[in-house]
Amino acid sequence: MAYESYVLVCGGTACCSGGADKIIEAFANELEAAGLKEKVQVVATGCLGFCEQGPIVKILPQGTFYVQVKAEDVKEIVAEHLVKGRVVQRLCYDPEQAKKLVAEANIPFYQKQYRIVLRNCGVIDPEKIEDYIARDGYKAIEKVLFEMTPEQVVDEMLKSGLRGRGGAGFPTGMKWKFAQQQPKGQKYMVCNADEGDPGAYMDRSTLEGDPHSILEAMTIAGYAIGASKGFIYIRAEYPLAIHRLEVAIAQAHELGLLGDDILGSGFSFDIELRFGAGAFVCGEETALLQSIEGNRGMPKPRPPFPAVKGLWGRPTVINNVETLANIPVIINKGADWFSKIGTATTKGTKVFALTGKVNNSGLIEVPMGTTLREIIFDIGGGIRGGHKFKAAQTGGPSGGIIPEQFLDTPIDYESLAKIGSIMGSGGLIVMDETDCVVDIAKFYLDFTVDESCGKCAPCRIGGRKLLNYLKKITDGRGTEQDIKDMEAICDAMNKASLCGLGQTASNPVKSTLRYFMDEYMEHIHDKKCRSGKCSKLIQYKIDPAKCKGCTMCARKCPAGAISGTVKNPHVIDQTKCIKCGACESTCKFGAISHG
Amino acid sequence: MSEKLETMTPELKAFVEEWKSKPGNLIMVLHRVQQTYGYIPRNIAIEISTMLDVPLAKIYGVVTFYNFFRLQKSGKYNVQVCLGTACYLRGGDDIIKEFERRLGVGLNATTEDGLFSVEAVRCLGCCGLAPVAVVNGEVHGKLETKDVEGIIEQYRKLG
What we know:
The complex is a heterodimer of chains A (595) and B (159). In chain A, the strands form 5 sheets. In chain A, strands 10-9-13-11-12 form a 5-stranded mixed beta sheet. A 4-stranded mixed beta sheet of chain A has the order 2-1-3-4, with helices on one face. A 4-stranded parallel beta sheet of chain A has the order 7-6-5-8, with helices on both faces. Chain A has 5 domains: 5-111, 3-Layer(aba) Sandwich (Glutaredoxin); 129-339, Rossmann fold (3-Layer(aba) Sandwich), CATH 3.40.50.11540; 349-432, Ubiquitin-like (UB roll); 437-526, NADH-ubiquinone oxidoreductase 51kDa subunit, iron-sulphur binding domain (de novo design (two linked rop proteins), Up-down Bundle), CATH 1.20.1440; 538-594, Alpha-Beta Plaits, CATH 3.30.70. With 595 residues, chain A is an alpha/beta fold. Chain A is built from 24 helices and 17 strands. Helix content of chain A is 39%, strand content 14%. In chain A, helix 11 (239-254) links the parallel strand 6 (229-235) and strand 7. Chain B folds into 2 domains: 10-65, no CATH class; 77-158, Glutaredoxin. Chain B has helices at residues 10-19, 26-37, 42-52, 56-65, 85-89, 92-103, 148-158, and strands at 77-82, 116-121, 133-135, 138-140. In chain B, helix 1 (10-19) runs antiparallel to helix 2 (26-37) and helix 2 (26-37) runs antiparallel to helix 3. The longest helix of chain B has 12 residues, at 26-37. The radius of gyration of chain B is 18 Å and the shape is elongated. At the A-B interface, helix 1, strand 7, strand 9 and strand 13 of A face helix 2, helix 4 and helix 5 of B.
């Protein structure tokens, strides 16, 4: 180590938005002024994961972890920490105003995590290939090209038990094997980086924090299946990730790690970027391929599977970003090592974007088999604002809503399917008692109806009908027959839709019907929404005992729904009320409430 | 409404020439068009159709399929309010309503002075900052409805 200390500044999207670039600039200036420029190196890293507390600055070798840093704080960090060696206590993470937690390792957010996919995120400068190489980067491709046959690579993947992290969990080795067995000729390797699930950003963080690991993994896959060409299909909404991939591809070319005759092995492989354009359905394999070909992203029936007939009719393997990020590590450390992590059916780790009503939002990686309780309460720090946990949602619009009684379920593909959800790509959204499950189901259906490509009738019509029923129920016009109809539509969509989007679009409805039927019934029979989210079901009431007859509310009401005379209690005409809440916020006597 | 005719820039022309022979080029070319003009102008779409030898109907088929492409120019300041799940749960829809109310325009519309347009977008990927709005690439996080007025004023001052 040429430097005495390292200052790691998180350069993920959330921290950048919080002003990380200004912090980096401030460090450069302050270090120069303090004469430490030769002794301290400032590194802009990928996402450190603890987005809730960003921007984050970590100082090595001590591992001191500063949260919510502002550019103005930098002077103090340099003067106190880097010059005098004293920790700046006020910037440390401090959940209970108790003992200051100085190092990352002591923060509960990091204690239960196990990082394989995110191994380099927040550690290396993602725009420097040397940093990646220093952490065993491109060692796996060397091993594969010179010590292994393509068949051995596929066997290693099969043995590792790695399954696709895009959501469905298909064994990666099997996919590779199918493509490998196809006759020689042009084949393609595609990386699916079209992360369209709202509330999920695992892939973006991986690409931003460690782009070379994806290039290396794609090259390994290309060698295994006999492809010479790779495409990364990435959302155009991720400019930073695109930039870092472009830099990484250029650097890999320069060092002969991509392009013709890689490392003199005779194997050639090249990678190009293709941009998505905001279509959720393009996360589906066949739709994604259509989009790369420059068409509307509409799925095709399978079989033929892409591994047999994919891009431009040629055998194609499509792997998700997180799946790929595991691969160099599996090659380096061996399938046996990898298969020891996780549960009986699901090996390795899973990255989750933990968001919603949880104290510590952020990007986390845990071994498969970790329970939801550990994730939400130990890592996530529990529910924010002292509220009560109500449900967790995995798998985004394709997943289900999981109630409290399953908090201790160890997470893997099978266990989540059993309780009516799916692993999905890694969105994990926490809800509290102020969230209405019917409203959430409506939110997701609204999304899938908008994103349905319209090709097949079950998804196009079924989704729309479900949404209409949900609107009817949240408006207070629902009937019990609606529930029966919804159940039948869910079933039909699930069985008859062409692609994964339609097949799973009913999951949010199915799971809420299964676990929260009482709330549906409240909406239907009592015309009541216990969370107060469904505004049409809210009733504003004036307590005659508290009302002084000041007439303020009647004057404020935009609908003219409040009547009454001076110094006498007022009344709200429920048929005219538009539930805007203006009266409640106007009343000085606390006489107006809603329920 | 008569639309202003845009002229094909030399850079765009060179880009189309470079991609012309590559299979699956249409979406990449459209991205470049939108990057150049802020939307997909009709007369440029017609020119692209000739240059790439792709039917205009197919170009419009693709443009209207993908949310990212727009057929109308956005305001000078394009307000993108995130409606990803995390932002929705933390009140993203209230933020949108407040922008609409204060600017007097609906979604995907531009104010009369051409200064602002409001768009609902799906997950900008900074859920830790929820709810989030992005104005011309600048992120405003952890928003409350009372912050909206200040944000609008901040840009209005810039003109």
